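I am writing to request your help with a piece of structural work I have in hand. I set the record out below, with my sincere thanks for your time.
___
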Amino acid sequence: MVSVPEIVGLIEGVANDSTVPKNIRRALDEAKTRLTSQDELTLRVSSAIYSLESVSEDVNMPSHARMQIWNILSALESMKK
């Protein structure tokens, strides 16, 4: 199972990519903030998934960033179980 700090690291990696549009970086930052909050783990994970799913199909996103976001979403989904 993947840990929250590992997922935060993945999110930061995508958010620091200058080819990723600003609205997607904003959603990544929001997901990171939600993951690192003091709420219950299930709530944090669900909130982060919601933030990322909203931009995962953005047509302006580079394909490599889309794949990384899908990987992050997959890791988050595995934490919910």
